[in-house]
């Protein structure tokens, strides 16, 4: 598209939005109609009316299809071909997030929450009030696909494993309690991220994390060289028990937050900022030199903090074993933050889940959506850096 065409298209969109309160609805409908037409052109190897020897078939009219979106119902015309071979994934992909939300809300019907209230919520978020029977059918299809995702074999090895947990409010036996959502992300040797598992647990106990990791290994998890997590005692113990061959990196962000517990409530200097700078150093030698200087500077003023840091900082520096290009990605669990933000945004709507299964359904559905986006994107990190780093280490050892 030329700059002139781009400006014309932008102006047209702006005119629609300014002239019609429902303009966004029309823009999205028009764009999605164009996507359907483009998919048909690609499937047939020719556009409408085009004469070419590469043509693979012919069009045969349209059929109507209603797509429910967050801007309301879109009435679309789906093209057909004479042989009946054309199909589109547009509706399945676009509605996945809506189904995730609706499937979670469906549990409220079962638990006796006001139908009017649930319909009001779905209308506000999805532009449409779903019937109980419709939601039940969506639930069944969604649960089948989520089960397949959760149980899929892990075919390739994963060099890096990132573990984290968040808590959601769940009602069990009439009592509202916090339950842990355990999440594992792996980075394979192509440098791509994958969400490997999402499970619910009553709490982050050693046995819960152990079962979680054993389940990953049963599905084929192997080749892990580094695990990144916070320092939850149960999690750390489970890592050592189930993946003893892997090095452990304690998330430095969590570490710095924990450091606040060892400082007076009022501290107005640069103590923690200077500690933070250690993690930007080029190698372990530089970091340790700066650590020694930091300890000498602050020991007299904050002896409780400096003693704690000296005793516990070692495992936050494990990432220095990796190639420098990987440091920013593997020194913390921050790569999970976007996923956690999306989970938080969706679960805030529900606030309290009627049971743990409804919570797991929503979070897994979001995990599937995120995982697909990650797999379609460019690789997250260049694993050739790690291959070369390991070769160099072997030569130096010899």
Automatic annotation (TrEMBL):
The keyword rRNA processing does not apply. InterPro entries: Transposase_mutator. Pfam families: Transposase_mut. PROSITE patterns: TRANSPOSASE_MUTATOR. GO terms for molecular function: DNA binding; transposase activity. One of its GO terms (biological process) is DNA transposition. Keywords: DNA recombination, DNA-binding, Transposable element, Transposition. The keyword DNA-binding applies. Required for the transposition of the insertion element. Belongs to the transposase mutator family. This is Mutator family transposase. It comes from Mesorhizobium tianshanense. The lineage of its organism: Bacteria, Pseudomonadati, Pseudomonadota, Alphaproteobacteria, Hyphomicrobiales.
């Amino acid at each position: 598209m030329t700059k002139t065409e781009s400006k014309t298209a932008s102006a047209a969109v702006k005119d629609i939005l300014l002239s019609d309160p429902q303009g966004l609805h029309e823009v999205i409908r028009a764009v999605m109609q164009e996507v359907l037409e483009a998919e048909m052109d690609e499937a047939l190897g020719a556009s409408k009316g085009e004469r070419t020897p590469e043509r693979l078939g012919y069009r045969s009219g349209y059929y109507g299809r209603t797509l429910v979106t967050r801007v309301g119902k879109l009435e679309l015309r789906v093209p057909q071909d004479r042989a009946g071979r054309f199909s589109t994934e547009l509706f399945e992909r676009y509605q996945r997030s809506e189904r995730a939300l609706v499937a979670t809300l469906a549990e409220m019907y079962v638990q006796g929450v006001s139908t009017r209230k649930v319909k009001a919520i779905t209308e506000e978020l999805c532009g449409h009030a779903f019937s109980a029977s419709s939601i039940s059918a969506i639930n069944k299809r969604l649960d089948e696909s989520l089960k397949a995702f959760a149980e899929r074999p892990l075919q390739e090895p994963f060099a890096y494993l990132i573990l984290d947990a968040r808590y959601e409010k769940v009602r069990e036996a009439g009592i509202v309690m916090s339950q842990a959502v355990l999440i594992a992300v792996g980075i394979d040797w192509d440098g791509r991220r994958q969400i490997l598992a999402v499970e619910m647990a009553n709490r982050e106990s050693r046995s819960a994390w152990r079962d979680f990791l054993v389940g990953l290994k049963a599905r084929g998890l192997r080749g892990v060289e580094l695990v990144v997590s916070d320092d939850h005692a149960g999690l750390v113990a489970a890592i050592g028990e189930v993946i003893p061959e892997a090095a452990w990196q304690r998330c430095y962000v969590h570490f710095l937050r924990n450091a606040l517990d060892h400082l007076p409530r009022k501290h107005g200097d640069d103590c923690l900022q200077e500690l933070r700078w250690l993690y930007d150093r080029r190698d372990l030698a530089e970091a340790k030199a700066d650590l020694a200087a930091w300890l000498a500077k602050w020991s007299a003023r904050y002896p409780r903090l400096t003693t704690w840091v000296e005793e516990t900082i070692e495992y936050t520096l494990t990432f220095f074993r990796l190639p420098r290009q990987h440091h920013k990605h593997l020194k913390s669990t921050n790569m999970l933050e976007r996923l956690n933000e999306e989970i938080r945004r969706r679960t805030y709507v529900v606030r309290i889940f009627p049971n743990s299964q409804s919570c797991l359904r929503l979070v897994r559905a979001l995990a599937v959506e995120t995982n697909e986006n990650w797999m379609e994107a460019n690789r997250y990190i260049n694993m050739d850096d790690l291959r070369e780093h390991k070769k160099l280490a072997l030569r130096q050892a010899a």
